[in-house]
Amino acid sequence: MIKLGIIGSNFVSDWLTESVEGTEGIVNHALYSRTAERGAEFAAKHNIPTVYTNFDDFLTSDIDAVYVASPNKFHFPQAMAAMAKGKHVLCEKPIALDTAELDQMIETARKQGVVLLEAMRPAFDPGIDAAKTALPLLGQIRYARFEFCQYSSRYDRFKQGEVMNAFTPSLGNAALMDIGVYAVHNCVKLLGLPDLERITASSIKLSNGFEGMGNVLLPYEGFNAEILYSKIADSVQGSVILGENGGLTIDKMSVPSKVTLHLRGTESEDLPFEMRKNNMDFETEVFVKLIREGKVEHEYMANTRAAMQLMDRVRELAGIRFE
């Protein structure tokens, strides 16, 4: 049984711990929280037996693996510290702030013989796999748009003058890192990595320098793609890939529930794929499988790294800074 230690007690940690509760071969075993009161509350909710407020004590305990769900800025140092202690790591997206950090993480995982995996939900979701399988039916692709705009529940408070962690650039936050990362990942997974020297990107910055919204134009061979993301507006349409034979629509980048094939001259068809109430189940199951099989090198990391390379270039072009 894999004993999992959780870093972070936010709503994303809620979802992951609930997923672990329903997954064979892994158990929620310990929690690290900076505040004892908050930690005790979260642990009681999820029947986690031990709470640590000292990070070193947490890492030297009998946990086998760590789930990192702290603010983006801390993903790299906390994951590196965990791997140095021989712990497998499931790290929330974005797994790091840039490719340089990620490469260090990959090398450390390799040296320590531990599994490192990004908790990127669509990477494991059958809905995105169904879309990828259907792509050849579209013929020559001519256009694609990957869109994920979600008005943050914290934005109203920001507009009233309260700057919460989610809107603090110094913590590694930006619309690209928090929301756009889903669209970037799916773009790279479905279409591959474009020529990074040819892309263009722009952002809308808020009063404190936080990136609230952004868009990217990506030239591919024979077609163009767009990525649109936001924490200050909601999407009113999904994402689309258009080919000479027809199109494909995906309703949501992070949790697809409807992937529809629209071939010219035929009725639209909703593609069948497995759905779960909590689509984190898929990543949890993969994490357990990789640990059991000892797969330090695995297929998912290539896409994680490609997406990070693209985000590095977008940040450079759009002037997204963590300061």
Give me the secondary-structure topology.
Blueprint: E1 2-7, H1 11-21, E2 26-32, H2 36-46, E3 50-52, H3 55-59, E4 65-68, H4 75-84, E5 88-92, H5 99-112, E6 116-119, H6 126-134, E7 141-149, H7 155-159, H8 175-191, E8 200-205, E9 211-220, E10 223-230, E11 239-243, E12 246-250, E13 259-263, E14 269-270, H9 280-293, H10 300-318
Parallel strand pairs: 1-2, 1-4, 2-3, 4-5, 5-6, 7-10
Antiparallel strand pairs: 7-11, 8-9, 9-10, 11-12, 12-13, 13-14
Describe the structure.
The chain is α/β, with parallel strands linked by helices. It folds into two domains: 118 residues, NAD(P)-binding Rossmann-like Domain (Rossmann fold, 3-Layer(aba) Sandwich), CATH 3.40.50; 170 residues, Dihydrodipicolinate Reductase, domain 2. Helices cover 36% and strands 24% of the residues. The strands form two sheets. An eight-stranded mixed beta sheet has the order 8-9-10-7-11-12-13-14, covered by helices on one side. A six-stranded parallel beta sheet has the order 3-2-1-4-5-6, sandwiched between helices. α4 links the parallel β4 and β5. The termini are far apart.
* Fraction of residues in H or I helices: 25-40%
The CATH level-2 architecture of the largest domain is identified as 2-Layer Sandwich
- Please identify which CATH superfamily of the largest domain we are dealing with: Dihydrodipicolinate Reductase, domain 2
Number of strands: 14
**Tell me, what is the CATH class of the largest domain?**
Alpha Beta
- Coarse shape: globular
Q: Which parts are unreliable, with pLDDT below 50 for 5 consecutive residues or more?
A: none
